[in-house]
Design a protein that fits this description.
The complex is a heterodimer. Chain A is α/β, with parallel strands linked by helices. Chain A has 2 domains: 35-136 and 274-309, Rossmann fold (3-Layer(aba) Sandwich), CATH 3.40.50.2300; 139-272, Response regulator (Rossmann fold, 3-Layer(aba) Sandwich). Chain A is built from 10 helices and 12 strands. In chain A, strands 2-1-3-4-5-11 form a 6-stranded parallel β-sheet, sandwiched between helices. A 4-stranded parallel β-sheet of chain A has the order 7-6-8-9, with helices on both faces. A two-stranded antiparallel sheet of chain A has the order 10-12. In chain A, α2 packs across α10 and α5 packs parallel to α6 (171-185). Chain B is an alpha+beta fold. Helices cover 72% and strands 9% of the residues of chain B. Chain B has helices spanning 9-80, 84-94, 131-136, 179-188, 227-237, 269-272, 274-320, 335-468, 473-502, 507-538, 543-657, and strands at 105-109, 114-116, 143-149, 155-162, 171-178, 196-201, 207-209, 244-246, 249-255, 261-268. The longest helix of chain B is centred in the middle third of the chain and has 134 residues, at 335-468. Chain B is elongated. Chain B starts with 8 loop residues before the first helix and ends with a helix. Classes of the chains: A alpha/beta, B alpha+beta. The A-B interface holds A 168-169, 174, 182, 185, 193-198, 208-209, 212-213, 215-218 and B 110, 137-141, 143, 162, 164, 168, 170, 203, 239, 257-258. Chain B: Residues 627-648 are annotated as: Disordered. Chain B: InterPro entries: HAMP_dom, MCPsignal_dom. Chain B: Belongs to the methyl-accepting chemotaxis (MCP) protein family. Chain B: This is Methyl-accepting chemotaxis protein.
């Protein structure tokens, strides 16, 4: 009797294994004939880098990639997701206009796997092998900035820091700022946040805000920005005000940012590998469609929710490598 | 031996079923309780998390709404560039615009001047040093700062920001929201029943909002607060905002976007599990009732089911004590009824069987009696046979002894005959020696004859000498005469010897005497010759006489020579007789040999006979043994027959015990 039951269980397991093999086996790595839709929240330097690399990688792998720029419109993004369902795309790469809408986007995709990039939805909306995020761990970027500041002012006990942030609810804003402040606070030095506001990634906004800050007459030792564009705004403000030598930190290592480092206007940026993200987005898409084990992907977390593309520190010593 | 007490089937069934039922119910209750507790806890956790998320969203929205309205007034001021009167109008209008910041908006500039609405109760003696001003200097967009106390003692959080109106003088616009107001707002957004929440500034660990107004604006984990707050403080300072159970409270943390605020919501685990305890108690009551009902039910059912078994037990017990007069009533058609019918059938067949057994045992008893008699007779016959065999054996034993004696005697006889043969062999040897001696004697006789002849010659010579000498021949004649005498006596003796020899047996001895006598005679003869020689010497002078006498002697010697020849012939005859005697003795020896052979054969045969008689003895002894064992066996048979008879009696007694 017992034997019979165990035999039956074995048989069931075997069948299960074989069924599993059927779905996981086959053309791992090859993207032949896979149809991928890429929805882009809004084009900028960095996002365009991602898109270009994604196109290149898709071509190498033999996958079809169609890119739609939503130009900041959530309605347009929803429309394109619906279109993807209608036209039976295999997988959707989505740079969400608003990461909080991830759940709605997933349900609109009607079972098609969605890979988010650029803006990270809450972890509760992610699922291994189905709804994943490809990007860089924003915390690391903030941490790198803090480490640069602490290194630069290692002899001072008190540091006056101005912070320029991205949009209020953007995941990158929260991750970068949080890690920056946590790392600085943990140093044991007295850190004065002399300015902290959301300049929404924008160069001109940041410039205006910093000009207003300068009017208050508070002293500032260093400016850390959530991206290079805002850092460039600070550079502009400083130039007008005739301030020299104050370290200005950005993130993304955009062409402008790198040039500013080269010229000495900016001190530090963090290279977020747009090419790496574009490449990994395509590879993750292909792995999901082929049913491969996504945790085996380079940079994938053990829970299979994230594929992290590493950041790199950029300052005057190595800026030439990133231009 | 300890007597086993009887345990009824009912007790056994109840003893097994009731504990099993109780165990199953308990396991069921325990498992259900455990699983339910897991489900409820996980459900409560999810509920609490969703409650805190929703609460945080509502707080964010509430804050956003207020900040937006402030931002709108601020933007208006920035865009309109109002003069002082207009600005005062705007500030007046902001007073009472919202319940959340009843004192409205107020302004301070870098020169230390302070502007507020006319109805505003806001007091600010030193605006440039105030926290809201300091905070406002660090941002352009309106945002909330840290908790602080106004000069009038109310705990507030200020929203403030730089006024970006393009003027050279820096101005900060702000509004105060009281923590009491925020507390009411925060706690009215709690969704989960029985859950509590409080708001903490995660940088300064100051409690911004709580139902317990004593805690507001106090530092989290300060002296006098409960262990729960101290545990929360550890979590907050460690920046670990995962779900956890602290001091018996399920606790969740949620950061409020756009602020430094951390919303902490908790619900005591016992409250969550209160329903579960109710459920558990209900289940325990139900299980106790169901166990009792089951016990009664099982007791009744087994009682009804087992009743026929009891009846059957009574019947079988009677049967066991040999009473087959019992019978049982059978109802129904279940297994027990089938069993009852089988028992009834069994009783009937047993009755019949016992009856038959009674008959059989009677017959057996009779047969056993007769077989006992027969075996007794057989036993006595066997005893007699055994006795006869003993006697026979004694006889054969004696016979064997006799035969052995005969054999012994025959062997002795053969030994005697062999000795005799030896003796006769010796006789033969002696005979042969005698023959040789007689042969020698014969030869000697012949030599004597020859000597005589020589003497004759010598006498003739002597006669011639005597003729010349012839004196002492007379004497020599005498001596010769004496020699003749001797020869005569020798002859006589030879005759005697021949006679003795003829007597065989003692012949040897006789001849020895004869031989010695002959030796004596010869000696005498020699003496005589010596005497003769001396005489000759003496009678040299007497030669003449002798010659004369010699001449007469010569004739005498011639006659004695004849006599000697006759003696030789006689000797030959004696010799021939001795040889015949020897032949006869050889024949005797041969006969004795034959006798020896016969005696040896007789001895051998009689020995064989003795051996045969020994075998006969052995056989008769084994026959005796067998006869004895037959006797013994027949005794056993008799005994067994006795036992059989006894057993038959017992069987009969046993059978009589059954009542049919």
């Amino acid at each position: 009797m017992k034997k019979g039951i165990s035999c039956m269980i074995c048989a069931l397991l075997l069948v299960g294994c074989m069924a599993g093999c059927g779905s996981t086996g086959g053309k791992s790595g090859s993207g032949n004939g896979i149809k991928i839709m890429m929805s882009l929240s809004q084009g900028d330097d960095f996002r365009n880098t991602i898109v270009e690399q994604a196109k290149k990688t898709a071509q190498e792998k033999g996958a079809t990639l169609d890119v739609y720029d939503e130009d900041g419109s959530l309605e347009s993004q929803v429309e394109h997701i619906k279109q993807a369902v209608k036209e039976k795309y295999d997988v959707i790469l989505c740079g969400p206009v608003n990461a909080d809408t991830a759940l709605e986007l997933e349900s609109l995709a009607d079972g098609i796997p969605v890979i988010f990039y650029n803006s990270c939805p809450d972890a509760s909306y992610l699922e291994a092998g189905k709804y994943m995020y490809v990007g860089s761990d924003e915390n690391v970027a903030g941490k790198y900035q803090a480490e640069y500041i602490l290194d630069k002012f290692s002899s001072s006990d008190e540091i006056n820091v101005a912070i320029f942030k991205g949009p209020k609810n953007h995941s990158a804003t929260k991750g970068r700022t949080g890690a920056l402040k946590d790392t600085l606070n943990a140093s044991g030095k007295k850190i004065n946040y002399v300015f902290e506001d959301n300049a929404d990634w924008d160069q001109a906004t940041a410039q205006k805000m910093f000009e207003l800050f300068l009017k208050t007459g508070q002293s500032c030792d260093v400016v850390a920005c959530n991206n290079d564009s805002m850092a460039m705004g600070i550079v502009d403000a400083c130039k007008e005000a005739g301030i020299n030598g104050m370290p200005i930190l950005g993130i993304d290592a955009t062409a402008g940012g790198c040039a500013a480092i080269e010229s000495g206007d900016m001190a530090f940026t963090v290279y977020q590998s747009g090419t790496g993200q574009g490449k990994m987005a395509i590879e993750t898409a292909i792995a999901i469609v082929n049913g491969s084990d996504v945790t085996k992907l380079e940079g994938a977390t053990k829970d299979g929710l994230y594929v992290w593309v590493p950041f790199e520190k950029v300052d005057s010593s190595n800026v030439k490598d990133y231009e | 031996m300890k007597k086993k007490s009887n345990i009824s089937i009912k007790a056994k069934l109840l003893g097994i079923i009731i504990p099993v039922v109780i165990a199953i119910i308990l396991i069921l209750v325990f498992t259900a309780y455990h699983v339910s507790s897991g489900i409820i806890e996980s459900y409560s956790k999810n509920l609490l998390e969703s409650s805190v998320n929703s609460q945080a969203s509502k707080i964010e929205a509430w804050l956003e709404e207020n900040l937006a309205s402030m931002q709108m007034a601020k933007t208006m001021i920035e865009k309109l560039h109002p003069d002082e009167a207009q600005l005062q109008t705007i500030l007046d209008a902001s007073c009472g615009y919202s319940e959340n910041y009843p004192d409205g908006l107020f302004l301070a500039d870098a020169n230390g001047s302070f502007l507020k609405g006319t109805d505003s109760k806001k007091q600010e003696p030193n605006p440039k040093e105030s926290m809201w001003y300091q905070e406002g200097m660090t941002r352009v967009n309106m945002a909330v700062g840290s908790a602080h106390q106004n000069p009038d003692g109310t705990n507030v959080v200020s929203a403030s920001g730089l006024l970006n109106d393009g003027l050279d003088t820096v101005r900060v616009i702000a509004a105060d929201m009281t923590l009491d107001r925020i507390s009411v707002i925060v706690n009215s957004f709690i969704e989960m029943h029985d859950a509590e929440a409080f708001l903490v500034d995660k940088d300064s660990s100051v409690i911004l909002a709580s139902r317990d107004s004593d805690l507001i604006s106090k530092t989290l984990g300060a002296d006098g607060q409960s262990a729960f707050y101290k545990d929360v403080e550890k979590k907050v300072s460690g920046k670990s905002y995962d779900f956890c159970t602290l001091d018996g409270n399920m606790t969740v943390f949620k950061e409020v976007n756009g602020t430094n605020w951390l919303l902490v919501s908790y619900v005591p685990t016992r409250v969550v599990l209160a329903d579960l305890v109710g459920l558990r108690n209900l289940m325990i009551i139900f299980s106790i009732i169901s166990i009792l009902v089951l016990c009664v039910l099982i007791e009744r059912v087994t009682h009804v089911v087992i009743r026929p078994v009891k009846e059957m037990t009574r019947v079988i017990t009677s049967m066991a004590s040999g009473d087959f007069t019992v019978s049982m009533k059978v109802k129904g058609n279940d297994e027990i009824a089938v069993m009852g019918r089988s028992v009834e059938h069994f009783i009937a067949s047993m009755k019949e069987m016992i009856r038959q057994m009674g008959h059989v045992s009677d017959r057996l008893e009779k047969q056993a009696g007769s077989s006992k008699n027969v075996s007794g007779e057989m036993n006595s016959a066997a005893n007699i046979q055994s006795q006869s065999m003993t006697e026979l054996n004694a006889t054969v034993d004696q016979l064997s002894v006799s035969v052995n004696e005969i054999a012994q005697n025959a062997t002795q006889l053969a030994g005697v005959v062999a000795d005799t043969k030896e003796d006769s062999d010796k006789v033969e040897d002696k005979m042969r020696t005698t023959v040789e001696v007689s042969e020698k004697g014969k030869a000697d006789m012949e030599s004597v004859g020859n000597a005589l002849h020589n003497i004759e010659i010598s006498i003739h010579n002597l006669e011639e000498a005597v003729d010349k000498v012839g004196t002492a021949s007379g004497e020599i004649v005498d001596i010769i005469k004496l020699i003749g005498d001797i020869a005569e006596e020798t002859n006589l003796l030879s005759l005697n010897a021949s006679i003795e020899a003829a007597r065989a047996g003692e012949a040897g001895r006789g001849f020895a005497v004869v031989a010695s006598q002959i030796g004596v005679l010869a000696k005498n003869s020699a003496d005589s010759v010596a005497h003769i020689t001396s005489l000759i010497n003496e009678i040299n002078g007497l030669v003449d006489d002798a010659v004369k006498q010699g001449r007469s002697s010569a004739s005498d010697i011639e006659s004695s020579a004849d006599l000697i020849h006759t003696a030789v012939d006689t000797f030959d005859q004696i010799f021939q007789n001795i040889q015949e005697t020897s032949h006869l003795i050889e024949g005797v020896v041969e006969k004795i040999n034959q006798v020896d052979q016969v005696a040896t054969n007789v001895a051998a045969i009689s020995e064989e006979q003795a051996a045969s008689s020994d075998e006969i003895l052995a056989t008769s002894e084994s026959m005796l043994q067998q006869a004895k064992s037959i006797s013994k066996n027949s005794e056993q048979v008799e005994e067994e027959a006795g036992n059989l008879a006894e057993s038959a009696d017992q069987l009969a007694d046993q059978v009589k015990q059954f009542q049919i």
